[in-house]
Amino acid sequence: MLRSMFSAISGLRAHQTKLDVAGNNIANVNTVGFKASQTVFEDTLSQVLRNGAAPNGDVAGTNPAQVGLGVKVAGITTNFGQGSTQNTGRASDFMISGDGFFVTKVGNEQLYTRAGSFDTDGVGNLVTPDGAKLQGWMANALGVVDPNGPIQDLRIPTGQVLAPVATTGSAISGNLSAGALSTDTAVTSQIQMYDDLGNAHAVSVTMSKMAAPAANRWSVNLVDTTTGTTLTPTPVELQFADGSATYLGADGQPLPAGTLAAPTPASFTVAAPTGAVPAWTKDVAVDLSSLTQFGGKSDAAAKTTAQSGSAMGVLEGYSLASDGTIVGIYSNGLRQNIGQLALATFTNPGGLEKAGNSSFRAGDNSGNPLVGQAGTGGRGSLSAGALEMSNVDLAEEFTGLIVAQRGFQANSRVITTSDEILQDLVQLKR
């Protein structure tokens, strides 16, 4: 009778723990990045009333007679399954699709979390709501990230200025009509170039069909309409053979043999503008080798390819690539890498210890953190503007509550029954 009572007491304790775990899961049903837990029971030692015996001659063997001494909690496991996605539209909300944890730092301690709700502090650090700093690799001045180096605090340099870059090359492609006449209107294309200080210069490229006997020849002139400077004092001449462009020198003679084995840009030295506008100090190479002369209309004006160079830019925003690269968006239209998030995986995530604030710390049985880039080494991919929500299944949790309640009630009935039997035993002397 006492055995049954003690076993029932252990059952009350175990089912109370199950209720505690289920209650915590339900409380965190809307917690970002929360991972639900489950309670696992196992029986305790059993008291042997009779040992078993092996068969011996004509005597059959017997099984042991044992009475269990109750139940105990074998463990509380964490379900690291993917939670549902909630779109937020915030650039600083990140979500991991797949395995891995964000790496954060609090003081000198490194923690790990699936909660990707970040913001910036007063100096631009990406931080969690409780102030932990997101870790990763910062890019150098050229936007190059070294993921083999040590991780550090990730910072968004709000208001960062991107220095201007002088134009050193440009190109024009498209078709010049084979049926064009020297009396036809010239084909005009526009290029925007930048000087050393990032000032924009609108450069007009005029392509005119040359009169006979210059068959299949075109004259090309470049004029900086911003300053009124002619960039090609001597017009560049192009001759087409079988539709492909061949460069001609200023004296009208073909270039040396083999020059056109690969695209050979023609370089023009930009004259220094006078007045308040700063001068260019670099030559600008204009590649015309992609121009063709076939039948049909001239469309070279509509096919100006992108040129090098840019104006000064100020960081206005950022986006996140699937590999965790944070790309800065600048006012001059350029994009440059700011840094890259680090993700950590563990051999046994179930061995992590909960550190509060939706974070984990490495445990004795979790293994060492394997830190690397998203999308490598089994790590998941990243996306911005979304959060991973709790993976708690309310239907399962409420069912677990019912099971735990019935288990608790059943064990309490065992205690009540044992008490009544003991009461009857005490009353035998009456």
From TrEMBL:
Compositionally skewed regions (Polar residues) per UniProt: 356-368
Chain positions covered by the region annotation Disordered: 355-375
Start and end residues of each Flagellar hook protein FlgE/F/G-like D1 domain: 95-163
Domain Flagellar basal-body/hook protein C-terminal per the UniProt entry, residue ranges: 384-428
Family indicated by similarity: Belongs to the flagella basal body rod proteins family.
Function: A flexible structure which links the flagellar filament to the drive apparatus in the basal body.
Name of the protein this chain belongs to: Flagellar hook protein FlgE
